[in-house]
């Protein structure tokens, strides 16, 4: 019998973290060995997510928890302010990071890739783990070859800290790989209210909507003379991301270096 993949979860008491904990506890080839969250007390992680006690107690000291539990993989859904430091710490300890956190710059990713290569371990930074969202990105990039006039609208709850979302930025990057920069609209266009046309990216616009009660939605609107094409993905529950997280935990054990984007795992 093969050894189970030992997994630690950072931000374990958060809404995404709880789903990750539940997923790891229910996957037959994974073992939950640590959960870390600064804002939570020493609760059993199984009880925290409504399952049987698992014998793993929440910690509030990341480095100590990782050193003592010796996981193979760290799954992190915390926030942009801690993303780089958590990733770098994991790599230094020989732990493969799977980061569902935005806020990494291209320079950050290059540095973390170098660190992973030196340690001969894999890492993943993924703005979105939803297989449906990844397909939306891929379809939009493919369609942009034929519909180069486009805009992106993304919708999230009003407590989301970053705008635009990591998913919309990744979509824009994929589109820009196959679509030459094209300045759209009337060159004499004037914004009467600053920002009303959205953020500018490589010739097109990204619009961020933040309202209570919305979970995660994105649409890419494309148009040309006489027709329009809309490619949209809606997420209704955090469980939608968990099959992708499980795939990432397994895949990150098989290569060296830092990969940016879950789409690399979807054929």
From TrEMBL:
Protein EC: 1.17.1.8
Associated pathway: Amino-acid biosynthesis; L-lysine biosynthesis via DAP pathway; (S)-tetrahydrodipicolinate from L-aspartate: step 4/4
Record: residues binding (S)-2,3,4,5-tetrahydrodipicolinate: 166-167
Subcellular location: Cytoplasm
Enzyme class, broadest EC rank: oxidoreductase
InterPro entries named in the record: DapB_C, DapB_N, DapB_N_CS, DHDPR_bac, NAD(P)-bd_dom_sf
Binding site for NADP(+): 38
Active site residues per record: 156 (proton donor/acceptor), 160 (proton donor)
Classification lineage: Bacteria, Bacillati, Bacillota, Bacilli, Bacillales
Chain's role: Catalyzes the conversion of 4-hydroxy-tetrahydrodipicolinate (HTPA) to tetrahydrodipicolinate.
Name of the protein described by the UniProt record: 4-hydroxy-tetrahydrodipicolinate reductase
Quaternary structure (record): Homotetramer.
Catalyzed reaction equations: (S)-2,3,4,5-tetrahydrodipicolinate + NADP(+) + H2O = (2S,4S)-4-hydroxy-2,3,4,5-tetrahydrodipicolinate + NADPH + H(+); (S)-2,3,4,5-tetrahydrodipicolinate + NAD(+) + H2O = (2S,4S)-4-hydroxy-2,3,4,5-tetrahydrodipicolinate + NADH + H(+)
Gene of this entry: dapB
């Amino acid at each position: 019998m093969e050894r189970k993949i030992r997994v630690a979860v950072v931000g374990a008491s958060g809404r995404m973290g709880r789903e990750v904990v539940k997923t790891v506890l229910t996957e037959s080839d994974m073992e939950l060995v640590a959960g870390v969250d600064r804002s939570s007390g020493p609760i059993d992680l199984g009880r925290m997510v409504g399952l049987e006690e698992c014998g793993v107690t929440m910690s509030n000291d990341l480095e100590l928890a990782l050193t003592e539990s010796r996981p193979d993989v760290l799954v992190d859904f915390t926030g942009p302010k801690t993303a780089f430091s958590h990733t770098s710490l994991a790599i230094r300890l020989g732990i493969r990071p799977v980061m569902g956190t935005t806020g990494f710059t291209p320079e950050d990713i290059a540095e973390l890739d170098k660190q992973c290569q030196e340690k001969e371990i894999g890492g993943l930074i993924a703005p979105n783990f939803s297989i449906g969202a990844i397909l939306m990105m891929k379809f939009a990039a493919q369609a942009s070859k034929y519909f180069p006039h486009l805009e992106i609208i993304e919708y999230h709850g009003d407590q989301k800290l970053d705008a635009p979302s990591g998913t919309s930025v990744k979509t824009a990057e994929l589109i820009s790989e196959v679509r030459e920069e094209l300045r759209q609209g009337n060159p004499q266009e004037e914004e009467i209210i600053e920002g009303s046309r959205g953020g500018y990216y490589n010739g097109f616009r990204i619009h961020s909507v933040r309202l209570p009660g919305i979970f995660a939605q994105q649409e890419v609107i494309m148009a040309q003379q006489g027709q329009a094409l809309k490619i949209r993905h809606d997420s209704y529950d955090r469980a939608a991301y968990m099959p992708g997280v499980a795939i990432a935990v397994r895949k990150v054990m098989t290569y060296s270096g830092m990969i940016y984007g879950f789409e690399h795992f979807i054929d």
